[in-house]
Amino acid sequence: MPSLPLDQLQITHTDLKTGKLRTSPALHPEQKADRYFVLYKPPPKDNIPALVEEYLERATFVANDLDWLLALPHDKFWCQVIFDETLQKCLDSYLRYVPRKFDEWVAPAPEVVDMQKRLHRSVFLTFLRMSTHKESKDHFISPSAFGEILYNNFLFDIPKILDLCVLFGKGNSPLLQKMIGNIFIQQPSYYNDLDETMPTILQVFSNILQHCGLQGDGASATPQKLEERGRLTPSDMPLLELKDIVLYLCDTCTTLWAFLDIFPLACQTFQKHDFCYRLASFYEIAIPELESAIKKRRLEDSKLLGDLWQRLSHSRKKLLEIFHILMNQICLLPVLENSCDNIQGFIEEFLQIFSSLLQEKRFLRDYDTLFPVADDVSLLQQASAVLDETRTAYILQAVESAWEGVDRRKATDAKDPPVAEDPNGVIAMVEPVSGPFSHLENSEEEECMGAAAPLGPPVCGVELDSLISQVKDLLPDLGEGFILACLEHYSYNPEQVINNILEERLAPALSQLDRSLDRQVKPDPTPLLTSRHNVFQNDEFDVFSRDTVDLSRVHKGRRKEENTRSLLNDKREVVAQRQRYEQYSVVVEEVPLQPGEGLPYRGDDYEDEYDDTYDGNQVGANDADSDDELISRRPFTIPQVLRTKVPGEGQEEDEDEEEEEAEDEAPKVPHWQVADEGEGVVLKGRLGAPCPCLPAAGFQAAPASLPRRRGAPSSLRCPLGELLA
């Protein structure tokens, strides 16, 4: 007989009040045991014995209760889980207050570490059993009833799932993936809850921008009220407030990354709210401001600033990895796996997302460092033959333009911040940063290396001499060697060096040094002989690069045994080069021919006839290019003021002037009306016989205005009547 699921199982038991047998469902509040689960409290930050003892006592109660719960049979376990409110509050308190790996925590005592391991394991096994609907063939819950039990009794919700991912994802990823996947499969209503949670997640980014005094995007940006005080920027706010913002950002980014890494199917729900664009916009606005605020606080607690910088670098890396997970799950994986017949929609979404991010220069630059965009585009080109080359080229060009003005160094594999973690992933706390806070002096456009960001180049040369002189001008009794050691320890900050020397707050290593210590001159690593460069370097006579020189090729003075003729007759160089040019077929030996013997015909000889068209022309023989060319064109004339007056000459000049005036006043006859007919001039009309060309009525004809013909006297005066007769 097959076993019934727990939600349909009925059990018979004796009623304690009446003593009679009674049948009731297996999942009933009466089956719950009376047990009170105490709330969890985190371990003390300071290893004070009294606080440590209090923590250990409370943690022991919690661990024992959870071990008792895990030992219950299947039906008793589920009755306790469903109907015991103290159990749910205990589990919620652990998820809420247990230290994360990025939280501040001093190295705890060994007994505290052991207790944390025990609690961590017990809580994880409890949630794992709560997410399993079938433990064996005889002990199981029907899937539909299981989903209703989880959802209606709030055994799991989206905040709990997020905390589970960030706490147990390290080292338990396969089990956690099955666990959360089963929850969403058996109860799809959690997808709706995640969709309703997305505005709250996006509001977290808006709150960070609001507290930083930065302008948000879209509807999240609200105008500042008049009664509100001015919002401080990250550079102006107190250090503790800046610390809270950085820790809040680190917690948010790490939690979101852990959830999407464990359950990537949630990426579709994230993208429904345009999460990619909102994430890139937040990165572009907030990250540079927070970095700048940390770098400017050089005179404050360097240890705390170093820890904040490390956490901010970790947050940067997680934001970029979140974006990469979203792009992989939404666009790239469906195309590469060919899970859909129409992959063009996924390619279009990829291009659309990156097209909307082209103005986010800093984000594109950092993302391209960790996950090159060109590689993703190359994968799409291999998967689809109809990829829009114009848009892809435009996106790649925009990514390249984001690197303009920045030293593009290919980053190595970015690493997480150093952690103190056991193999089971129970405790993973960030160790405090030790050493000087020198890495904050890096340039604003530092490569995205996460917590492994490289240190800036050391100060040297003229800049180092200037820093030493700043300290020595105020404290002339100090030696340059001692000042240099202080500058190296305090990140080349002369103000901090002077302040610590005057207040006698130097580091122990510096206090033991001799204050009159001189500066040791370091030899130049590149001596003059090895660093010189000229045209004679490394030739056969360069004594600086070789020890032996062929003295037979060295001649001192003038060579007297040779003269010009002997040099010209020396054909040794020509003979030496003959064989080389024979390979190019440019050397032809002279072959003597006998009289009457001609060269043999070859098909490639030139046999076209010679063109003698212009041989008879004397080109240039009749050109007027003599020295007196300008003189021969115009004869010399005596100026008019120097001429001797001759009788009758003035009359001819007057007549010439009258003729010129008549020419100007005469009407112009169109050329199409003038034609030759014998010796006269006629006017071509439209009808009838041709008539003479006449001026206007009342004027005398001026023959000089018409073309002159042979036989016509130049002084002809013809009245109008004579021409008509």
From TrEMBL:
Residues 594-676, 703-725 are annotated as: Disordered. CDD domains: CUE_ASCC2. It comes from the Eukaryota. One of its GO terms (biological process) is regulation of DNA-templated transcription. InterPro entries: ASCC2 (IPR052586), ASCC2_CUE (IPR041800), CUE (IPR003892), UBA-like_sf (IPR009060). SMART domains: CUE (SM00546). Residues 605-614, 650-664 have a biased composition (Acidic residues). GO terms for molecular function: ubiquitin binding. Residues 463-506 form the CUE domain. This is Activating signal cointegrator 1 complex subunit 2. It comes from Lynx canadensis. The gene is ASCC2.
